[in-house]
Amino acid sequence: xxxxxxxxxxGQSIWLDNLSRGLIQSGELAKILKEDGIMGVTSNPAxxxxxISSDPLYTGDLAELKKQDLTAEQRYEALVIPDLQAACDVxxxxxxxTKGKDGYVSLEVSPTLSHDAVGTIANAKxxxxxxxxxxLMIKVPATSAGVIAIEELIASGLNINVTLMFNLKHVxxxxxxxIRGLEARVAAGQPVDHVHAVASxxxxxxxxxxxxxxxEIGTPEALALRGQVAxxxxxxxxxxxxxxxxxxxxxxxxxxxxxxxxxxxxxxxxKNKAYSDVMYVADLIGPETVNTVPDATLALFRDHGVxxxxxxxxxxxxIANMAVLRKLGINYNLQGEQLQTEGLKQFDDAFIKxxxxxx
Length: 359
What we know:
The structure is a single chain. With 359 residues, the protein is an alpha/beta fold. The chain has one domain (4-354): Alpha-Beta Barrel (TIM Barrel), CATH 3.20.20.70. It has 16 helices and eight strands. Strands 1-2-3-4-5-6-7-8 form an eight-stranded parallel β-barrel, surrounded by eight helices. Strand 3 (104-108), helix 6 (117-131) and strand 4 form a beta-alpha-beta unit.
């Protein structure tokens, strides 16, 4: 068994954080799904920029689209919608076999709408209708406007992948918005058993921001936290998830067939070469979770990763680590807001580059 496939029996789904026309048409995507037990696919503007700018399979179609009276965004969508549909078709058997738990392909709403709830809702519904696949997930950022949109989109029966969560405020708002959306469906007499969502906590960016602050403080207590904050926050978030979705608040919805909004670990490629190159995968394996992993990190785990239940080990230490962070004067909630703002800008910048490519 592949070392990656060995994660699946432990209750965690590994999704591939990459998508391109070449990956689909070459059969490589289907091969990875089969050999490594990959259960889904995620994309973002940076991934599509890389794909469209480097994959020759787009060249002819883009040239034809540039002859038409279309906006750059319309050309971008005309290029990627068939890819999303094809990817959904490749993963559809997983969706069917898991009764909708996995087999998803995720597409981002326009990053220009991150602070526009009405625009996000309209954009998400339009993309959902255009792609027309039950195993599509629409990605919406965990901004204040995004949270409003999430509730409405869940109430409308769409599958949602919430992105750019960095602190417990984001976690609280997103998970409760999902529950309110399901409650609205129930109140309207609509079924809830087919609606699925994930809530994505981003990891490597956390340690990249916090580590230099710990080094500046320089005490043994501070230095011991280097490379530990993102993983500690994940463990704390997971405890929060379990209390909510295995508690009384969700019980009535669960009785009606509703699915919990699984936690997803994103940005899981290690940036600091001083740390294990698979730590955001190997150290966070646990049930009812998803980890979306880039190709390079998958290759590393395939080579020397170890699949073991690790997510629920060291939870007390994780809680203590977050307390030490506060004691050191580092306000993690504020850091999370900064990280979300920076993440939004990165996605927005990538989207601008993407539209320049299709202009």
